[in-house]
Amino acid sequence: MYKTTYDHWSKTKTRRIVGLLILTILFSAAAAPLSAMDAEEIIQKMEENQVHQSAYSEGRMIIRDRFGEKESSFKSWARGEDESLIEFTSRQERGQKILRTEDEIYLYFPDAAEVIRLQGAALRDSVLGSDLSYEDMTGDKGLLDSYEVELLEDEVVDGQPCYQIDMRAVSRDVPYPRQVIWVDKELFATRKVHKYSLSGKLLKEMRIQDYITQNGKTFPARFVVEDKMKSNSSTSFIIDQIDLGVEIPEATFSLQELTW
Questions:
Q1: Does 150 have pLDDT greater than 70?
Q2: Global pTM?
Q3: What pLDDT, on the 0 to 100 scale, is given for residue 7?
Q4: What total of structural domains would you count in the chain?
Q5: What whole-number percentage of the chain has pLDDT above 90?
Q6: Residue 188: which domain range?
Q7: What is the chain written as a DSSP string?
Q8: Are residues 65 and 190 in the same domain?
Q9: CATH number at residue 245
Q10: 214 and 164 housed in the same domain
């Protein structure tokens, strides 16, 4: 009698434990897709915020170094991730332009009425003495086309929880062989970026200070870049006005229009 009762109790308990394990596994399997994102999904969502079908903006660069402070203003047109045109409007640089079309970058200097195609090491030259290179100014193409990405431990940046993502270049035709990017978990916008050399030396740091939200997208409106190869140098990049979804004539991003 005792054995029969014990066997019944033991089998009942076993069934309950198995049942709880099954429920736990099912719940975990159902919950995982809702809570877990991999590095590629995070980058994709971030780029949805920061890459626009078309945009017109006006802004400023404030360069600070051992000689003091200098401010340059600009206006810019962009379409997707492959085309952009920046025209400087400040007195000293008025009329200078930087054009990016797919994989090519061109400069136009009105005083010389000359168009220069940038290649090789020249792409890393400083824009107007700032901490930004020509490659930096015209932006990265799709990050997932150029980098393998890995999710690291989460970190807090400026009081905000962030995903930390390590990015390693898949080819040599990118300006930075490695980048580490911190993406705000709520905004899915960049909070901080570290850019490294092939040897692992930190070359540049970018920290975002303010954001703009427009048409359901949130993206950096003010950030500071420090070139770690320079001493006592930083550049603030500020967007004062931006309009998304504007119509931009096809010829805007052509060499024929660059000299106008």
A1: yes
A2: 0.80
A3: 53
A4: 2
A5: 62
A6: 40-258
A7: -HHHHHHHHHHHHHHHHHHHHHHHHHHHHHHHHHH---HHHHHHHHHHHH--SSEEEEEEEEEEETTEEEEEEEEEEEETTTEEEEEE-STTTTT-EEEEETTEEEEEETTTTEEEEE-GGGGGSBSTTSS-BHHHHH--S-HHHHEEEEE---EEETTEEEEEEEEEESSSSSS-SEEEEEEETTT-SEEEEEEE-TTS-EEEEEEEEEEEEETTEEEEEEEEEEETTSSS-EEEEEEEEEEES----GGGGSHHHHT-
A8: yes
A9: 2.50.20.10
A10: yes
